[in-house]
Amino acid sequence: MEVSLMGNSQANVVKTGLPYRDSRVCCSYKNKIDDKVLFVNRVSFLGQNRSANLRKAQLRFCTKASVQSQPLPSDRDSGPLSSARPKSLDAVRLFVGLPLDTVSDANTVNHAKAIAAGLKALKLLGVEGVELPVWWGVAEKEAMGKYNWSGYLAVAEMVEKIGLKLHVSLCFHALKQPKIPLPDWVSQIGESQSSIFYTDQSGQQFKGCLSLAVDDLPVLDGKTPIQVYQEFCESFKSSFKPFMGTTITVRSFDFKQCQVHTISDLHLLWDTDVVSTLQFDSLQGISMGLGPDGELRYPSHHRLAKSSKIPGVGEFQCCDRNMLNLLQQHAEANGNPLWGLRGPHDAPSYDESPNSNSFFKDNGGSWESPYGDFFLSWYSSQLISHGNCLLSLASSTFGETGVSIYGKIPLIHSWYKTRSHPSELTAGLYNTAKRDGYAAVAEMFAKNSCKMILPGMDLSDEHQPRESFSSPESLLAQIRTACNKHGVEVSGQNSSVTGAPGGFEQMKKNLFGENVVDLFTYQRMGAYFFSPEHFPSFTKFVRNLNQLELHGDDLPVEEEVTESVHTNANTNIQVQAA
C-alpha cells in the first residue's frame, strides 16, 4: 500500500509496508458532516503540519467499513435540498480542476502518484470528470512549432484509465503563482519588441499575455499570434485525437445499481468486475484562452494592492504603440483625430475609487460624454473582436471532433451598484446602468456556437464589503439573462478553493435554480482540497447534487493498529490498519 502526501510544492510517497490487497484505506470525517462517511482510496493530499488539524477534525484511516449504497430519504440539515430534485439538475455535470502545475515545465507530471490516487477518490465520490490546464509556455516552450505534449498525454491517459472524463483549458497566458511563464522564445521576442504587451497610462507593462492589438501583426518571427495559436491548436488536436471518440474499457461505479457492503467491496469493484466496453469520448470539452487568466478581458486590475479590502477601479490598457495606432485610426475614421492621441486623461489609477477623478463619476462623469462613448465603444469592440477571432479559430479547428468549445468571461462585480460600473469598463466590458454590455458578448459566443464559463458562482452579495458597491449576484443574473436571450449555454465555476463565506450554499442556489448550468467545474484539486478543513464540505456538496448518502452509523467498531508515516516536514500522520 502507498500513502501519498502532498505538500505545497511536491509530494512525498512513503511505502507503509502493508500489502495493498490486505489493507483497504478509507477516510472517516467524524462530526464534520453529521457522521457521514467518505471513502478515499490510498491517498491523503496534505500540506505541512497537518497532524494537529487531523486530530481536531477526528480524521482517521481504517481498513474495514460498511457502506449503505441506497440513498436515504432526507438530510436533516440540508434545508430545501431535502425536497424533490429539480429536473434541470439532471443536466449538471460536475468536474474538478486539476492543479495548475499538474505538468511541469520539463513536461513531467507533478505529484503523479498523489494525483492518480486523488482521481480515484473523485471517481468513487461520483465526480464526472476533471479539468486540465494546458499551458502554451510548457507545450511550446523552447521554439515556435516545437511541441511537447508528453506530460499532458500522460495525465489524459491517467484520467481515461480511471474512467473520468476530461475538459482541457488551453492557456495562452502566464501565471505568477505557481510560476508558469510564456514560452521562452516569446519572452525573448518581447525583450526587443515590448509593444507586443499591454501598457497602461504610466508606461507600465503587463507581460502575462500578448496584447490583442498584435493579433494580426507578424510579430512572432514573421507569424501573427493568431497563426501561432492556430498551429498550437492543430498540434493539440492531432496529439489528442485518440481521446476524441474512442472505444475503450472503463470501470463504472453506479452505487445505485451495485451492491456495496464493505470497503473491500469498493476495491473489488475497482479491481475486477464492474467494467464496460463502450464508446467513450474522454475529452468532453475545450476551453479557449481569451486573455489574462484565460478570461475575455484586459489586464486592468493586475497592479491592484493586495492589502486593500476595497478594490480600485483598475486602469485602461491602451497605451502600447499598437493599441494607440488602432485608436488613432478609429478616431480619424470618425472625424475626431484628437480623440485618438491617448486614452482618457481624467480616469483614476488602479487602486483609486471612481470619484477620485472625473471620468467615472455617477453624475457628470466623462463616461457619459460623446468622447466617453466613443472611447468605451472602441475599447470594448476591440476585445469582442479578439474574442470572436479566437473562438472562431477554436470552433473551426475542433468542430469536426464533436468536442464542445468554451470561453470564459470574468465576473467583475466591484462597483456594480454605481451607474458607471468602472471596474467593468476598464476591463473592456462596456456595461453601465444604461447600457447592457453583455448582450454583444453573448451574441458573439452564439455566433461561434460556444458555451460560456461564468466564474464566481460561490459569491453572494451579503458577504461583500458595503464600500465596494459590489453585487456578484446581480451581475451573474444579468449575464445569464443575456445568454438565455441568445441561446448560449452557461457553465459555472467557483472563485477559489479557499472558499467564499457561504460559498457551498451559494453554489447550490445557482445550480438548483431555474437557469440550467451545462457544466460546473470546482476549482481546484490540491493540498487544501483534500484537507479535513475542506473535503468534508465538498463531499456534502457532491452528495446534495447526486443524492447519495453515506452514514457513519454503518461503520462497525474495529480493533485498530496504528502505523506512523513521516514526511520531510516532520508531519506525523496516523494510518490505522485493522
Automatic annotation (TrEMBL):
PANTHER family: BETA-AMYLASE 1, CHLOROPLASTIC, INACTIVE BETA-AMYLASE 9. This is Beta-amylase. Pfam families: Glyco_hydro_14. One of its GO terms (biological process) is starch catabolic process. InterPro entries: GH, Glyco_hydro_14. Keywords: Carbohydrate metabolism, Glycosidase, Hydrolase, Polysaccharide degradation. The keyword Hydrolase applies. Belongs to the glycosyl hydrolase 14 family. It is an enzyme of class 3 (hydrolase). The keyword Chaperone does not apply. It comes from Citrus sinensis. The lineage of its organism: Eukaryota, Viridiplantae, Streptophyta, Embryophyta, Tracheophyta. Its EC number is 3.2.1.2. GO terms for molecular function: beta-amylase activity. It catalyses: Hydrolysis of (1->4)-alpha-D-glucosidic linkages in polysaccharides so as to remove successive maltose units from the non-reducing ends of the chains.
